[in-house]
Amino acid sequence: MIAAIIAHIAATAHRVDWPDVLIFALTYFGLALGDIPFTRLDRSSIAILGAVAVLLFHRMSLHQAMAGVDFPTLILLISMMAISAQLRLAGFYDWVVRRIVAAAHQPWRLLAGLIAFSALLSALFANDVICLIFTPVLCLALQRARRDPVPYLMALATASNIGSAAMLIGNPQNMLIGEAGNLNFAAYFITVLPLILICLALNYLAIAVLYRARLFADIEPPAASQPAHEHHHPPKIQWPLIIKSLVVMGILLIAMLAGSIIHLSRPVAAMAAAGVILVSRKTRPADLFALVDWNLILLFIGLFIVIANVQSHHLLAPALHALAKMGVSLKSHLPLAAVTMVLSNIVSNVPAVLLIKPAIPLTATHTWYLLAVTSTFAGNLTLLGSIANLIVAQQAEPFAVHLRFREYLRAGVPLTLCTITLAVLYFKII
Fold first, then answer.
1. pLDDT of 7 above 60
2. CA 362, CA 357: separation in Å to the nearest integer?
3. HSE of 145 in the Cβ direction (CA atoms, 13 Å)?
4. Per-residue pLDDT tens for 12-56?
5. How many other CB atoms are found less than 10 A from the CB of residue 55?
C-alpha cells in the first residue's frame, strides 16, 4: 500500500511546489523529533520557524498567513488558561488532590477517586494543567503515606487524557476541532459521554490489574525525595477566589451549552468569563498571564500558517488521491482512527489534527467527534504521545519517582488500542 502511494505521488511530482514541500517536511520532521540536536529549539520554535520560512520565501503573503490563523481557537485557549490559572493560584487544585489522597489507606478507593477527579477536572480545565499541578502533590502525599506513586501517576496521566476528550474545551485539539467543525457543545458532550465513562472504567480496570501488587505494597520514602519535599510549598487556600472562579466557570458552561439559543460563540463567552476573573483585588492579572502556556499558543500560530500554506498549494492532494484510488478514505472511521493514532504519536496530536482536518467534510459531525476522541485517546499509547504524560514524568523526577518509557507501555498500549477500537465501534453503532 505504501509503495503504491509513493509511486502515485512520484507520478504527480511535477505538479508539486517543492519549496512548500521542503518547508512542510522539515517542520513536521522537527516536530517528530521534538528538538533539534545541538540547539535549544523545541516544538513551538520549530513551528514558528516553519511559519517564518513560509513568509520569508514568499510562499504566502503576510495577509494570507494571518487569515490562516484560527484566532477564535486561540482566544478560547488563552481564556480557559486564565480561568484555570486563577484556580491554581487560589489553591483549588492542591486542595482537591489532598482530599483524594486522604484515602491512601484504601487503594481501590484512592485509584477510583483519582481517575474520576482528574478526568472531570481535565474536561473542564485541560489535562496538561491538571497533570502539572496534581503530580507533585500526589508524589509527596503518597510517599508520606508509604504508597508507591507509579500506579497512581499512570492513572493520573491516562485518565486525564481520556477525561479531557469529554468536552470541546478539555484540550487544545478539541478546541480546534470544535471550531473547525462548527460543533455544538452540548450535542458533542451528550454523544461522547457514555463512551468516555466506559473508557474510564477500562482505565481503572487496566491499572488495577497491571499494578494490583504495587497498589497495596508499602514503600520506604527515598532519601532523594527529601529536598523536593522541603521545597514544595502548597498555595494558601483562598475560598472567595475559588468560589468566584467556579461560579464563573459554571455560568460559562451554561453559556456554551445554550450557545445556539443565546447566539453567543464559545470564544466570546470564554473571553467574557476570563475578563470577569481578571477583575480582582487579590490577584494581579500579570500573575494569571504568567501561567498561560504561551509556548503552546506559539505552536498553534506557527502550525496554522504552515498548514494554511499546505492547503493553499494542495500539497496533500496526491497522497489523498492515491489513498482514494485504493479505497482508503479518511472519511471512513477505521482509517481515520488508525491514521490519527499513528500521526498523533509521531508529531503530537495538535499537529496531527491540523494535518487531518482538511480531509473531513464540514457536515460529517460524527467524523469530527471521532477525530476529537481518537486524537486524545492516542496520547495514551506511549510516554511521548501526550504533553500531559511528559509533564507527569518530569514533575515526578525530583521526588525520585521514575515513570519510564517501557513502564508506561505496559498500560498505555493495551489501553489505547482498546479505547480507540471501542470508539470506532461506538460511532459505527450510534
1. no
2. 9
3. 22
4. 555 567 889 999 999 999 988 877 888 999 889 999 999 999 999
5. 15
